[in-house]
Amino acid sequence: MTSPIKSIRNIFFLLLFFLIVPGIFSQTQPYVILISFDGFRWDYCNRAITPNIDLLIKKGVKACSLQPVFPTKTFPNHYSIVTGLYPENHGIIFNEFHDPYTNTDYNIRDTVEVRNSRWYHGESIWETLKIEGIKSASYYWPGSAVNNELKRPEYLHKYVDNDPPKNKINATIEWLQLPYADRPHLFTLYFSNTDHSGHNFGPDSEENNLVISAIDSTLGFLISALDDIGMRDSVNIILVSDHGMTEVSSEKLVNIEEILAGYKCVFSNYGPFMMIEPPENEIDNVYKILKNHEKHFKVYKKRNIPDYLHFKNNPFISGLFLISDFGWSLVVNENLKWIKPETFKGNHGYDNTQLDMHGIFIASGPAFKKNFSTGTLNCLDVYPLLCKIFNVTPNANIDGKLDRIVFILNEN
Length: 412
Fold this sequence. Notes:
- This protein is about 30% helix and about 20% strand.
- It is α/β, with parallel strands linked by helices.
- It has two domains: about 280 residues, 3-Layer(aba) Sandwich (Alkaline Phosphatase, subunit A); about 90 residues, Gyrase A, domain 2 (2-Layer Sandwich).
- The strands form six sheets. It has an eight-stranded mixed sheet with strand order 7-6-8-1-9-18-2-19. Strands 12-13-15-14 form a four-stranded antiparallel sheet, covered by helices on one side.
- It is globular, with a radius of gyration of 24 Å.
């Protein structure tokens, strides 16, 4: 018969086991810093001006490019990266679009609507990790600052334009030094610098090269800061971009509103693509007019949008869809007031099979192979890759595929 003292001792050690062991397991969770350099084209790191990116490549994995989803715009692609879904499925089809059923607009400059969780239909990686009790932190990432607590990271900085890049690094280092019980394991950082310079000066300009070099120095600051706290070898860094950039010109414009003079159509977006909602009884006439003027662009009825774009199965896509030839821009009269030759130098949003629209994928850390190069990866596969690294079950209804990317992971 077991003595009362021995029974108490056994209960004590059992309680101690349940208190301590979960803490041990939580400490074995990996650390991942997912960084986006907005508009950082696939070949920017081949210009011999990015020594810190070169260091990541030498110690990790480099893809030839990262293929974005269509449209090759900022918010659709960032949300695809963290959900593994095409925009037609996760809901953020453009940077700006209209909901005709509620007569409301989504616009990335509208802080109220951009934080309204009703627009975001995917399950982001921080939601998936939250289910498993793993904390996340975001110093900007499109879709992270929603007003639904269940759909956002535990630690969050909302977007502020011109926020110094070092603020994001300093915050990440502070988060990494929190007590284990409070510490996040996934960090998302967003930098817009190269997108701005690519638009304003062109992707091949000296001004853009200076910005590329400067943002590389920010990466170097992060690596140095991780060394300072003794965590460089414990952290996985994944560097991506949402899209690339190509040269454009104010001389390569097609004024769609001028072609459709006399028709009261609703025009959405401009540049590489455009949506048009004609009056319901005029859609065939408007389509025929556009077909007859189909020079430097293609026009489709919604049901006939090419399948490879994965861009027609969403209720907010208009009845007519136009996509321009590469380097050309579709405009309406209002756009002509501010499109100036001196600032209209670069753009994105074109067909995602165009190489200039591709971004980067570079990864380094204990989860990844070393000094390993591969071909083009798909941005949809980043979400299932992150789930694999954290050993969590991904959302079942995703478009991304783990088997297209899992081979870059360290097999040991």
